[in-house]
Structure formats: structure tokens, C-alpha cells
Amino acid sequence: MYFILKPHKKCTPLRPILNTIHAATKQISQFLDRLIRPLFDRYIRQTTFVDGADLLNRLQHYIQKGYLKSSTLFITFDINNLYTMLPQEESLNVLAEFLRVHNCEKVNGLSIDTIIELARVVLQANAFVYNNKFYRQIIGGAMASHELYGRYIDDIFFTWNGSEDEVKELLEASNYFRPNIKLEHKISKSVPFLDVLVQHNHGTLVSSFYHKPSAEPTVVSFLSDHPRHVFRNVIQTVLTRAVRYLSTFEIFNHERRAIRLMFLYNRYPSNYINQQFEKFFADYLSSTSPPILPMITNESQSFALRQKLLNELTAKQTQLAISAATVQLTQRTQNVIQPNRNNMEATIQRNNDKFKKNFFIHITHEARLQGVAREIHMIHDNHFKNTDKAEIRLVVGFRNNPNIEFELSRKRPA
Questions:
Q1: In this structure, which topology does domain 49-84+143-212 adopt according to CATH?
Q2: Domain boundaries of the chain, sorted by first residue
Q3: Span 145-186, pLDDT tens digits
Q4: Angle between helices 299-310 and 270-284 (to 10 degrees)
Q5: Phi/psi zone of residue 33: left (φ > 0), alpha (ψ -120 to 50 degrees), beta?
Q6: CA dist., res. 122 & res. 127, Å (int)
Q7: pLDDT tens digits for range 348-366
Q8: What's the predicted TM-score (pTM) here?
Q9: 195 touches 242 (CB < 8 A)
Q10: What is the crossing angle of helices 228-245 and 52-64, to 10°?
């Protein structure tokens, strides 16, 4: 066990970390995750926020239906120490109920009872030694109305068109459902959720970045030993998020300056920043538009760019959609105990042929080895170009040099 700081919390408490990479239950846990997560992604999508962009899209639909009123409140709350406070047996009962409600009597041939027993092993076999004492975890586990409601793990956001006193009473009553589960809530017309700040301004939705008070303006330093595409991707990702989140031209230009300063602070050359900004805008705006400088000066261009990006799925949304699409439900015709019930069997079918004809080589990136990937491809082509192996595609990938986060999360400290 070791500890890391939680600088965003009052008094900077410590978070205990148990290294379970090689724990006995790790593979069972991963197996269950691959088995059940696609079902969760398919059936719980309407009450799950994937990221900040997903929240903004859902709020836009909420507004289009006419539900946003001058009195509408935004409420966020999170559950204190959710993973370590969940009642284990009740969690298992909820999992069983989830599978039965969606008629998944079997998943990839495994019955609900078998899945529950495997989950029980994962929850109840968490043990560790600290200060020469043996510990076993006995609580928790390893980590319909017009209103909009959704959650991201233990963070919840919803809208409310009733009185503030009513929603306060509801939230305070929720704190008594379970003695070890407590909610911390915020009720306002301006609330942060994930990395986006949403504000209700007299019937108009205004959104911007949310920067935690403890946040530092740091990204991957331009002086670090990373492949060049990493620096390009960092700039592209930050700009994409800014365009999606920032609802007005004024907010966008203000944040654009802050983004530029952040990259300068992290030793990115000014010309390189300008080049990447120009490339980003040129990729999304039509060639018939006037020449684009690193700073957009046309409000209509800013609006068009935002609408185009909001209509595109984010990487997380795409990943979730692919996961949900792997679920195949088939009607079971044998051993049906209740004739009037849809007795279904779920099968998780992943595309395992995607990389069937690819051969991967990974090397640790070092700037002094520039060109080594090209040389590996040349060696491969010289040996296999005119053979029956020529159809196999060689992919040379780079691993980044280990950083402090990697050392802490992947290795047990000495």
C-alpha cells in the first residue's frame, strides 16, 4: 500500500492505493467487465453521461423540447467514497436484478447465478497486509420524467423545475437511505459537472471550461522525449474540446488566449502553436471560407465550427457505441419456466478479425532513434515482399518512456 495526495480536496487528504495488478482476483474481474460492460453500455445509456460533450448534447435536446424555463435549476451531487462504501450483498442483488430485468438469463452461456458467484469472489476476496496486519474488505469493492438526469460513475447531474426547497428535501432524505453512503450536492443556475461549467442565463444555456481550483496549466512538455504526433494531438484535443464546450464567441476567444499561453508555458514554440491552430481550423472549415488565422475573428465561423463538432461523436462516445453493439440477444426456446416471459440469452460478439492480418512491433520512443520505424519496415519488405506473408501488414508502434504516474500505478514501490 502507498498513498497519493488529493490536492483538489480540503486539507489535502491522502488516497490509499493498493497495487492489485497481479492479485488473484484481477483476471476474474477483467473477465466480468468484458462480459457485463457491453450490456451496461446498451441498457443504461439514457442515464449515463459519457463526457462533457455528451452532457451538452443532452441539454440541447432538453432545450429544444421546451423544458428549460426561467426557474429551472441545475443540481449536481456526488457520492462520498462510493466504491468503498457500497454494501456488497446489495450490490450483488442489484447486478442480478439488472440482468433479470433485461431478460438476460444467460450471458455467453453463463447463468446469472454463476456470474453473481464470480462477482462475489471479486468483492469479498480483497485482502492486503499493512503494518504487519492482515485486512479484508467487507464494505464496497475495488474502484422517468421530463427532467434530464444522468451520471458519470459517482457524479450525478439533473435538472429541476420544482422549488428549491423540494429538491433539497429530496436530497437530504437520500442521505438516510444507507448510513455509510452520503451525498454532497450543489443547487444553482450555474454548476460544474466533469470538466464543463453550465450556466442558465434567463432561459439561455451558457457553457464553458471548468477549471478546478487546484488545476495547473500543464500538458506534455514540448521538451519531453515523445514522438512528434503526441504534441500535435495534444493541441488538437484541447482545441476540439474548447470548440465543443464554449458556447459563445466571446468565451471561445478568451479561452483560446488561455490555451495559447498554456502551450507557451509548456515550451511549445509560438510558430508551432500557430501552425497547429491554422491546421485545426482549416480541417473543419470549408476551403471557400476566408483565410483563417490562429484567432477566429468571424463569429459565424465559430458557430459553424461548433455545430459541426457537436454533431460528431467523441472518442468515448464511439467506444461506448461499439461496446453496446457487441450485444446479441437470442430467444431461448428450451427450458422456459415462465411461458409469458421473454427468456433471452445474451451473447457478446467482438470483432476479433480486425487485426488478424496485422503484425505489431512496439518500441520505446527515443529521439535519437528517429527513422528506426522506417528501417524496420524496409527490413520487413526486403524479406517478405514476394512471399506468401506479404499480405500481413506490419505496424510499428511507439511506447512512451515511463513517467511518475506509470511508476506509481504499475509498480509496487520499494
A1: Alpha-Beta Plaits (3.30.70)
A2: 1-43+88-138+328-350, 49-84+143-212, 228-312, 358-410
A3: 578 999 998 899 999 988 899 888 888 888 887 777 788 889
A4: 70
A5: alpha
A6: 11
A7: 776 666 667 888 888 877 7
A8: 0.75
A9: no
A10: 20
